[in-house]
Amino acid sequence: MKKLLVLLLVSSTCFAVEPSLERQTELRLLLKNDCGACHGLLLQGGLGSPLQPQDLMRKSDIFLIETIENGRKGTAMPPWKPFITTSEISWLVNLLRHPN
Ligand code: HEC
Question: How far is the CA of 52 from the centre of ligand 1 (A)?
Fold first, then answer.
């Protein structure tokens, strides 16, 4: 029993937990309004680079998550760490790869 509990604890910290449905709605809005302001309404690119699935195909999750968390020095890409957690960012990257 104790072993099972430890296993549950470990797995919930290792795998990104899905944000609540309410939070998912907020994150989708953020993507459209805030990210879209630079990356284009359809994320086709603008001031910021295009973020459609084919544009991200060759880029790793870690690279993209790091960019969103900390921004890119010397460019307009700001850090989002103060507003969204790493697991939310990882959910966003997955959404960018598989939009629906
Ligand atoms: C003020 C403008 C601005 C906003 C707002 C912004 N970005 Fe960016 N973003 C940029 C720019 C400019 C770059 C390109 C940086 C470079 O030249 O390397 C970039 C790069 C990126 C990249 C790396 C893409 C690649 O192909 O390497 C990702 C991922 C990204 N942004 C995601 C986001 C997300 C998600 C949001 C919203 C939470 C967001 N950005 C909001 C300007 C912005």
Answer: 12
Q: How far is CA 59 from CA 52, 65, 67, 90, in A?
A: 12, 10, 11, 13
pLDDT in tens, 12-71: 444 557 999 999 999 999 999 999 999 999 999 999 999 999 999 999 999 999 999 999
Q: Quick one: tokens of 43?
A: 């994320």
Residue with CA at minimum distance from ligand 1 atom 30: 68
Q: Which atom of ligand 1 is nearest to the CA of 72?
A: 15
SS3 92: helix
CA 64 – CA 78 distance, rounded (Å): 13
Superfamily of domain 21-97: Cytochrome c-like domain (1.10.760.10)
